[in-house]
Amino acid sequence: MKDYRILALMTALCLMAGAVAACNRPDDPVVTSLVTTTAGTTAPTETSETSASSSEATSVSETSKDTEPSKDTEPSKDTEPSKDTKPSKDTEPSKDTEPSKDTEPSSVDTEPSDDTEPSSVDTEPSEDDDTIVLDGEDQTYANTYITNFVESGFPNFSTESADVDVLLDFVRLHLKINSSNAISYEKKGELDFETFAFEKAQSVVGKYIAYYLKEGEVNTLPAPPSSYGDQPAGPWYEDGKIWYEAADGEAYNSIGIVDSVENNRDGTVTLKFTIYAIDLDTYWALDNDGLKAYYKLTPAQANEDKTLEKKASGVAVVDIGQSGGYYLKSYKVSR
What we know:
By secondary structure, the protein is α+β, with helices and mostly antiparallel strands. It has helices at 2-23, 29-62, 137-150, 164-178, 198-208, 280-285, 288-294, 299-304; strands at residues 131-132, 157-158, 184-188, 191-197, 236-238, 241-245, 254-263, 268-278, 308-320, 326-334.
């Protein structure tokens, strides 16, 4: 019995020892779980190192030569404003009006116009900026305009002391030279007259001169005579018409060439011009197109033209209309 008890006790001890040994087996699921967990904590560390390496590669890639701005995209000297496109003194803002960093420059539409003088001394135009250079159509227009006065022998004149007789004399010769169909021929007693409507006279004066001719200024003129006497050749007024004693055969071969134009900064410009006489043989042979060719001459060309003879020089001050047209204010010729 005792032996059985001892045997049973030994058997129990063996079972307990086996249980303990079984806890230390390599394939125990608990141990395997611990190993897996340890490996899991190591793997993220390795992954983190790999991720850091990739981040450096990205940084290098972003700053690599392939992604750096090329020389073609950098502002080159060719894209800097050239001297030719740099705003002139007239259009650059003065120190008083220069935009601050917080304010963007205003558009061209808000820049001061020519009628407004710059407030800063630094932005005032130089004397050279007051000279207007004529070429092409501008030169032709200026020459043609001043020739209207030159060819009619227009005397020294100012709108401030305008003489109605001088204005009407200009209208009469202008029409005879340039618009003869506006003149009618009428006989009264012994005399032959050239007549034109007052409205036509008013229109011509308004087209070329800064003066508004009123009918009250002409209807006080005497009526035309019916017989010869020592009276002047006109003007006279009757029946809403201006009357002059008829005369023909004159040669209107003088032209004006504008040498320079100066901006007076008050809405007027000064035209300096030279009066030339076209050689008479040449003049009588000219047709209308041939005459107009003279109006296109530059000062240098006119000076070299052998068919022209210099007669005098003159100065005219003209208003500038909204369309750019000239309107005479004063006229002076020096021979």
